[in-house]
Amino acid sequence: MDAPFVVKDLPRNDPALLAEALRIQLAAHQVEADWLSYPALPLMWSQADEVARSPHRVLGAFEGETLCGVLVVSARQQGGFHIERTVVDPARFGEGWGYRLLNHLLNHLLPGSEEVSVDTAEVNAAAVALYHKAGFVLEQRWSTSDGLLLWRLNYRRQAPLPALHLDESGWVREARQIPSPNCDERETGVPELLVIHNISLPPYRYGGPAVEQLFTNHLDPEAHPFFGQLRDLRVSAHFFIRRNGQLLQFVPVHKRAWHAGASQWEGRERCNDFSIGVEMEGCDFEPFADAQYRMLEALAAELKSRLPLRAMTGHEHIAPGRKTDPGPWFDWVRARAEIGLPM
Questions:
Q1: Which residues is 312 bridged to in the sheet?
Q2: Which residue in 192, 279, 281, 297 is the catalytic one?
Q3: What domains lie within the chain, and their CATH numbers?
Q4: pTM higher than 0.70 for the full model?
C-alpha cells in the first residue's frame, strides 16, 4: 500500500517546490499576524532563494506531490535543537499536518534527544495546544520589546511512568472508562496474549471522538465520507492509547472485546477468546509518540501483575494478509525491552 503522506527533508534544488514553501510560509504568516493583531511578526523567508540557502534543516510534509506544511529546526549552540517555525498551508488547517511534522521530528529524526525547544505567542492557543499534544511543556514566559507575550516550551520525553491500578471488576481506575456494548463473556480461555493495533478515524487524523463513537456504536456514518463503510461494524478493544498518552478503556479485561476478528496464534484460532486488545492512536505510515510507549509500558506492567499474560503480538501477526497494524513504525524492539513479553 502506498503511503498516503510522507515527511522528508525539503529538496533544495527544485525551484517550484521552494516557491511553494515560500507561498505556504507567507500565507500562514499573514493568518497568524492577523490573528495575533501583531503586524511586526517576523518572516522566516521573504523570497524563494532564502529557503534554498537556509542554514537550518527544513522538513516538508507531502500528500502525494502536494506540499502541505514545513518545519524548520536548528541546532542550538548549547546543545539540543530549537524549532524555528512550524507552518501549514492555511487551506490545510485542521488536517493534522503540524502534528505530523512534529511527530516525525521528535520520534524519528531525533528519537534520543531530550533537548528540543520552541517559542510561540501566549495567545496562540492553537499552537500551544499542538505543542502540548506533541509532548512539550511550558517552561518560561517572556515578552518582546513591543509587548508580545511568548512562551518557551521544551520537549519532555522521559516523564515518570503513570501509576495504574486494575480493580477486581477488570477496569483500570486511572483510565477514562467508556463501556462498550461490543463485548461478551469469554467462553474459553483466560487473557494470555497482548495484541497491539493501530487506529485513526478519519484515517490519519488524530484527537477527535470518532474512535470512541465507533466502539460505542454512536459513529455517524454521514459525518465523514469514510464512515459510511463502517455503518454496520461492531467492534471494540479493551484499551485505546491516544497520541498524548491518555488511556481509555472500553471493555473490562475479564470480558472478550471484539478486536482481533479471524485470527490465529500458536495454532489456536479466535484470539479474542484469550487476548487483551490495545489500540494505539496512529497508522501504518508514521511513528508512534513517546507518551504512547510510556503508557503502554505502564499498562502492560499492571496487566502482567494481575493476569496470566505470557506474550505480545501485533494484529498483523495473528491475521497476516488481512491486517497490517500496528505496522512498520511500531518499535517492537523498544516495546519488548520495556514490557518484557516475548512475541
A1: 194
A2: 279
A3: 6-155 (3.40.630.30), 176-339 (3.40.80.10)
A4: yes
